[in-house]
User: Fold these one by one.
Assistant:
Number 1:
Amino acid sequence: MSEAPLKSILDLDRMVHEPARLAILTVLSAADEVEFLFLLKITGLSKGNLSAQAQKLETAGYLKTIKAFRGRIPVTSFKITPNGKQALITYRTHMKELMQG
Amino acid sequence: MDPEQLARLEDLTDRYGKYQPCGAGLGAVWTGGLLAVLVGMIAHWGLPESARVEALPPVYWNYLKSHLAIPGWLVLAAFAVPFLGWLGGLALQPWADRSYGIVECSDWGGIPKQQFTRFPVGLAFSALLVMPWRGWSSPTTSMWQSTLGILALVGWVWFASRNSRDRLTWLTVIFTYFPAIHFLDCWSHKLIPSELVSFEIWFPTAPAAVLIISGAWRFLQFLKVRRELDTFQVADQ
């Protein structure tokens, strides 16, 4: 393997590269705001895993958690941040370059 | 996770968010149905009245006398349609959200939410400005009733569209709003038969059809995307 692609692999954002987090960010990038239930069903993750991955992404500044009430029921939704969008774009570009190279 | 799966995730999210609002289209079907019932009521009352008036000898004096007084029950029905349509949409939405929750997507690109209320509010104020000019012979009490009715509709439009950026929801608000505003505007004076036929029968018929057809189409698309979601599996986690 030449030096350039190797550097590209090492440069990959590991926060985004993990499959569960990549799926979460991909879903969030397609919408303005997504409810926990939708993410749970579409990604097929367990509740605990989804919460943990979302927490990590929030700590990294890639998503924002929104807690609200619908009537008396508490509802959690997520929103991708501009940083998260940028990280996803950069990750995709890196991956594309790697696949081509 | 391969790029195809990621693209599919994106596509499903986008389509679900797009087809979910307005009771997954059923809100529009319900509102279109209400509008069609209103058109039927107007035709039921107005066409015989209009024919009776037009049967008079066509002299200028008879033309001036040929105005139709709108019955209060019809004004009330036109006024109720926007609110009933909106309540129907509200009642249907939890059914659409039940299985997969809510995904908010913008159907209008970068237009801020507040922009949606500008057009109907501007229209209502035009109706208020036109009213004294049109209602030169009307009693003051019905002028006040009309004014309050129009202001109530403005308040409703602001309230109903403040959180939505969905095109079909906006259309349900606007399409039910026009006949109600026109009837309230004309309540303080009288309609001429041609105005009744063109503004209150033919004009709302097309929006009613648009709402029913586009609502039904959206509902079918929503069912399709929900079926796809039921079978979708993220293989690599």
Note: Chain B has a mean pLDDT of 79.
Number 2:
Amino acid sequence: MYVFAPVFLLVPMAVGIVFAALLAVRLLAPRAPDIGDKRMSYECGEVPIGDARVRYNLRFYTIALLFLLFDVEIAMTLPAAVVFRRVVAEDRPAGAVALAALVLFLGILVAGLGYLLRKGDLEWIRTWRKSEHNQPDGSPASPPVKNNP
Amino acid sequence: MNAALQLLRELGLPGGAPVVILAALAATGPVVLAVLTLAGFQVYIERKVCAFMQNRIGPLHCGPQGLLQFTADGVKLLLKEDLMPAKADAFLFRLAPYVVMTAALLPLAAIPLAAALTVTDLDTGVFFVMAASAPGVIGLLVAGWASNNKWSLIGGLRTAAQVASYGVPAGLAVLSVALVAGTLNLRNIVEMQRGHLLLWNIGNPILLAAFLLYLTASVAECNRTPFDLPEAESELAAGFHTEYSGLRFGFFFAAEYTMMFVVSAVAVSLFLGGYHLPFGNSWLARHADLAGRAVLAGAHGAGAMALLAGLAIGSWAVAPTRLGFLWRAIERIPRKGVLFLGTGAAVALGVFFIAPAAGPRLVMAAGNAVGTVAGERAGTFAATLIRLPLRFASYGVPAVHLAVFLGKTLMLLFVIMWLRWTFPRMRIDRMMDLCWKRLVPAGFAIFAAAAFWLVIRSTP
């Protein structure tokens, strides 16, 4: 009935612990932030050049997409996994159908993973594809095609 | 949670929202405090383990064998200046520790510490744990971005990529267990593993593979060596927490160790038989009485200690001696009030635990006395309250369960520390390869194997 009460209580509790502790810091710790270069970003002691609002590597987006895909898949398989045991115990044809459905669903995902692997989307360090890099006749790789004129 | 609710009903309190909140507080508060203390203590264990492996001694000077090192660390963090870079995004910079700590503490709600001791018995169990701990990575990403420091940004991005990637094999391992157990409720999963070592999930070769997969993936999810690229000090200063100082940094640290505890506790529940003893339950059933008496004696002992501590603190408050830096910190707070409050609490706790040992007749007399002064309802309330510690006699089995559970969890934590001090840090491309090209396919294979095994087993 009230099973989620502690869950809802834990959120304000965690926030309260952090808030109370930081309040204690405010009361106890010294505060003189403007002495010296204390408020300068620490980049190994060098004076920072520019801002950290820079463009970053596209591969992080790929990872985010992959994560979204496979994690949603896990979330969607969980209900099937939970009832699977019961269905299998019921009778043989039902178990066979359930197994076939599960394997089909997983098979599509594994095929997708295989496709990504083949296309090189799981590589962290992207290089030219091997066929471009080493021409069969030993000539050097052709330069990459530029999209923007 | 249910036990606390029942207890409050027996005390004669009316039902309704306030009592539910009180029961929830009674269920969550001690667990959160214990786990946060354990997180501090883990730092000590880690330093001792590391020192042992490197032929050193480790912390030695704070308390016996350096046992109080984490309190010294805590006081130090509390007294450090809390700095924020001028260029940082102030709101997000301050928000990050809250997100991280909430995500670290929330999963504790679903972990079964003993058969009768779960904060709350969630049917969504492991799924809740996975979902509740997921926002932690958002906190780390926010910390990295808000710092406006290139190292922090790269550290935050790496954390996001790493935790997101390794969440997939960990999820597949959990999925395999859910498939075999047919439930997500962690307590039910543990109950299904009742019995000796080979009846635990780890005794099943397929789930043994799932356990190894989960352990590897969760070490990576906690950003621990050999997968600690987000805070690789040789390339990124300190990664996402470079700009954090004092207690604000301490929260990232505490959250990391709390997450380690959560991950180990989930692994113990899913694969290592949870709170069950490794040689079956008949022994515990036979000796439940003895265990109960031991727990009661322990409670009385703890009460006596609290009483003594209260008296000591009280006498120190009356006639203080100067204790250096600690004293200067205490001087800033309204000293007398806090100290006398502490003394009072400790003495009350001591009396509370020891009083019932004086005998049932005295308890009855006290209850009657309150009853005549403040009415019958207050009298039964007082009598029930005074007799409360005697219930500890029936807490023998939960106490043994709790000890077994904590023992297993600490062993797993030791394994994680062992990994840290054994393996060098991986290169990032190899780490991502390991996840997507090795562990994810392995996870799918384990899941499929578990499904086939279930079908073959049930076929006559």
Note: Strands of chain B lie at 112-114, 117-118.
